[in-house]
C-alpha cells in the first residue's frame, strides 16, 4: 500500500500500480510463459524478462479506472482492425468509432510517458503541455481533433513489428515537435506543439474525419530492424547531448 499525490486528480490518496503503456499493448510480445523481454537503449541496462507491462505508483483507483475505460475501448477497436481494410490494402477505415474515448486514450499514453520516472520513457518531456493534457484527461475533454493530434500507421510485411514495443522518441513532423513510438504493430505519432492546428486538415489524424482512418506501411524485416536501430541510436545521441 502506498499513499501519495495522484498525478491525474492531484489529490492525496492511496495509489495503485498503474501501467504506463496499457497492458493490452504488450499482448503480441508475450511468449508461451506470458513473458516478454525488455531491451533498453541505455548501455548499463541489460535485457531482462517481464510478465506484465511497465508499472509505477502514479494514479488513485478512481483515476486509473477512468483511463482504464478508454483503454478498454481502444483495445476493442485495435483488436479488430483487420476487418476494416480497404480493398487496395492501403488503409484501415473504421466507420463507427467514439472519437472522445479513442482520443483520450491516445492522450493518456503520451501523458503517462511524461509523468513516469521509468527510464524507458525518459525521452518524453511535454513541458507546459503536460498540465494542459492532464486537465483534458481529468475533465474527459478530448479537445478538437487538431489539438494534440495523433495518428496511427499499421506496419506490415515485417513480422517483428508485431512483437516490438519502443518507447516514445522525439521527432519532427512537418515542422512540429512530435513523438513517435512502436506498439501493437502500429507506429503512433503524436504532435505536441502549441500550433498544431496549422497542420493539413486532410492528414488522417484521429478525429479529422468521421471514420477512424489508419494508414498502412509495408516494410521488409530488414527495413524494419534498420529503422528500430536508427531510432534507438538517435535516442542515445540525444541523451549524450543532454548529459554534456
Descriptors:
4 helices, three-stranded antiparallel β-sheet, alpha+beta, six-stranded mixed β-sheet, 244 residues
Helix and strand succession? EEEEEHEHHEEEEEH
Q: Label the overall shape.
A: globular
Head-to-tail CA distance between termini: 39 Å
Helix content: 25-40%
Q: Major sheet: order of its strands?
A: 6-11-7-10-9-8
Uncertain stretches of 5 or more adjacent residues? 33-52, 236-244
- The average pLDDT score comes to 84
DSSP strand tally:
11
Number of helical stretches of at least 4 residues: 4
Structural class: alpha+beta
Rounded to an integer in angstroms, the radius of gyration calculated over CA atoms is 18 Å
Reported for the largest beta sheet, the result is: 6 strands, mixed
Structural domain tally: 1
Short description:
With 244 residues, this protein is of the alpha+beta class.
Characterize the structure shown.
The structure is a single chain. This protein has 244 residues and is an alpha+beta fold. It has one domain. The chain contains 4 helices and 11 strands, in the order βββββαβααβββββα. It has helices at 61-78, 99-115, 129-138, 221-243, and strands at residues 2-5, 12-19, 36-38, 48-50, 55-60, 91-94, 150-156, 166-173, 176-183, 186-191, 212-218. The strands form 3 sheets. Strands 6-11-7-10-9-8 form a 6-stranded mixed sheet, with helices on both faces. A 3-stranded antiparallel sheet has the order 1-2-5, covered by helices on one side. A two-stranded antiparallel ribbon has the order 3-4. α1 (61-78) crosses α2 (99-115) and α2 crosses α3 (129-138). It is globular, with a radius of gyration of 18 Å. It starts with a strand and ends with a helix.
Amino acid at each position: 500500500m502506498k499513499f501519495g499525490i495522484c498525478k491525474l486528480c492531484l489529490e492525496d490518496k492511496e495509489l495503485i500500480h498503474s501501467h504506463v503503456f496499457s497492458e493490452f499493448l504488450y499482448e503480441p510480445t508475450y511468449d508461451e510463459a506470458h513473458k516478454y523481454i525488455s531491451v533498453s537503449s541505455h548501455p548499463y541496462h541489460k535485457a531482462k524478462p517481464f510478465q506484465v507491462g511497465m508499472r509505477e505508483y502514479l494514479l488513485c483507483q478512481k483515476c486509473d479506472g477512468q483511463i482504464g475505460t478508454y483503454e478498454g475501448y481502444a483495445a476493442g477497436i485495435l483488436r479488430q482492425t483487420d476487418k476494416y481494410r480497404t480493398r487496395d490494402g492501403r488503409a484501415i477505415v473504421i466507420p463507427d468509432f467514439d472519437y472522445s474515448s479513442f482520443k483520450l486514450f491516445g492522450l493518456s499514453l503520451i501523458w503517462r510517458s511524461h509523468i513516469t520516472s521509468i527510464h524507458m520513457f525518459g525521452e518524453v518531456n511535454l513541458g507546459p503541455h503536460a498540465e494542459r493534457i492532464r486537465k483534458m484527461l481529468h475533465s474527459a475533454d478530448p479537445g478538437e481533433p487538431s489539438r494534440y493530434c495523433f495518428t496511427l500507421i499499421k506496419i506490415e510485411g515485417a513480422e517483428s513489428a508485431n512483437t516490438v514495443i519502443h518507447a516514445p522518441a522525439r521527432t519532427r513532423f512537418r515542422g512540429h515537435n512530435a513523438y513517435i513510438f512502436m506498439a501493437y504493430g502500429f507506429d503512433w505519432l503524436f504532435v505536441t506543439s502549441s500550433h498544431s492546428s496549422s497542420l493539413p486538415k486532410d492528414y488522417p489524424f484521429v478525429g479529422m474525419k468521421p471514420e477512424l482512418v489508419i494508414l498502412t506501411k509495408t516494410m521488409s524485416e530488414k527495413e524494419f530492424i534498420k529503422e528500430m536501430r536508427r531510432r534507438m541510436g538517435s535516442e542515445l545521441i540525444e541523451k549524450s547531448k543532454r548529459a554534456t
